[in-house]
Design goal:
The protein is an alpha+beta fold. The protein has a domain at 34-132: Trypsin-like serine proteases (Thrombin, subunit H), CATH 2.40.10. It contains five helices and 16 strands. The protein has helices at 2-12, 27-34, 97-100, 232-241, 308-341; strands spanning 16-17, 20-21, 38-44, 52-58, 64-67, 73-74, 79-80, 83-88, 104-113, 118-123, 148-153, 162-172, 183-186, 198-201, 206-213, 227-231. The strands form four sheets. A six-stranded antiparallel β-barrel has the order 3-4-5-10-9-8. The chain has a six-stranded antiparallel β-barrel with strand order 11-12-13-16-15-14. Strands 1-2 form a two-stranded antiparallel sheet. Strand 4 (52-58) and strand 5 (64-67) form a beta hairpin. The radius of gyration is 21 Å and the shape is globular.
């Protein structure tokens, strides 16, 4: 109870900077503004009931989605999963799969990087569409130890579009001895299924991509409260290197711009150009603080997400929907034949 009170107090605190009152959003406000920009990702192969489940964030109005590479990569085959399903948040998450999984589109991989564990997906569309709910990147230089942060995602055995809150515990550089892979260590609860989802600060900006969890030491001792997100400056440099230019969001004062994720009228900004081919990338050296950490000591989310029954139910729903369309088309054809005979 005391921890929850302290977290709320952090979020409600107003920071005074250069005479201006900066917005400090509560976890509830962040969820209301950002949840519609967070997607559920289910990746699988044809004729395979196993599924990898993760999270992602809409970062551009053309339907570009940022996530972790391991969410869409099948380590057993050494290839990208052949089917990538994207689910958008319904108006109300109810726990009823027919409701929660009704907003569904397929996606393809535009860009991925094994070392950085990042990927950009592009929603497949028959007709052009503008996605107005997007998450803006925030400059992580504004984030330090003790700052409150929240995570949005789909944790194993939890609800879809789950919100968890915590604080920044440490800032780490060259994570896993990978040059330029700076991470934010957080005590915000993460579990399998949170991978690829956003870490959001009290400004409402995405300052990290939730990527890894530590659960067991080398001697088998349980580890708790040790989780990691890839810093947004690493993401930005990686995207910039591949001609995908996503600016940081501006500072927000009480009379400033709307919170990230809020529906924006019009389409003033052009969609970024995403290369069609997959290319390995490097974010360059962004590490300014922290220490090198051997990634081998951490339990990583590289195993199939254990919600096979959920995915099976979705496939049944999809098959049922296809059958209904086939019946309708069949009825229309028969009607046309009758009209032709008359």
């Amino acid at each position: 109870m005391r921890r929850a009170f302290v977290l709320v107090a952090f979020f409600l605190a107003v920071t005074i900077l250069s005479g201006s009152a900066l917005i400090a959003l509560s976890p509830k406000e962040i969820y209301q503004n950002a949840a519609n920009a967070v997607v559920l990702i289910m990746s699988s192969d044809f004729q395979d009931s196993k599924v990898m489940v993760g999270s992602g964030s809409l970062i551009a109005k053309d339907g570009s989605i940022l996530t972790n590479r391991h969410v869409i990569y099948n380590s057993a085959t050494g290839k990208i999963y052949s089917k990538i399903h994207i689910f958008f948040k319904p108006e109300q998450v109810t726990g009823d799969l027919k409701n929660d999984l009704k907003n569904h589109l397929m996606a393809e991989v535009s860009l991925s990087d094994e070392n950085m564990d990042l990927a950009v997906l592009k929603v497949k569309l028959d007709t052009p569409r503008v996605f107005r709910n997007i998450l803006q990147l925030g400059n992580p230089e504004k984030v330090t130890q003790g700052d409150p942060v929240v995570a949005l995602g789909h944790p194993e055995q939890g609800g879809f579009w789950t919100l968890t809150a915590g604080i920044v515990s440490a800032l780490l550089g060259d994570f896993g001895k990978i040059n330029g892979k700076s991470m934010i260590q957080i005590d915000t609860n993460l579990n399998r299924g949170n991978s690829g989802g956003p870490l959001i600060d009290q400004r409402g900006y995405m300052v990290g991509v939730n990527a890894e969890i530590a659960r067991k030491a080398d001697d088998g001792l349980a580890i708790t409260g040790i989780n990691f997100a890839i810093r947004s400056d690493v993401v930005k440099k990686w995207l910039d290197a591949h001609n995908i230019h996503i600016p940081y969001g501006p500072e927000k004062t009480e009379a400033g711009p709307a919170p990230a994720g809020e529906t924006v009228k019009g389409d003033a900004s052009p969609a970024p150009v995403v290369p069609a081919a997959l290319k390995p990338g490097s974010a360059g050296n962004t590490a300014k603080t922290g220490r090198s950490v051997p990634v081998e000591v951490f339990h990583q989310e590289k195993h199939p997400y254990k919600i096979d029954s959920v995915y099976k139910k979705f496939l049944e729903m999809e098959k049922s929907s296809d059958a209904a369309v086939d019946e309708m088309n069949k009825a229309l054809e028969e009607q046309k034949k009758k009209e032709g005979q008359e």
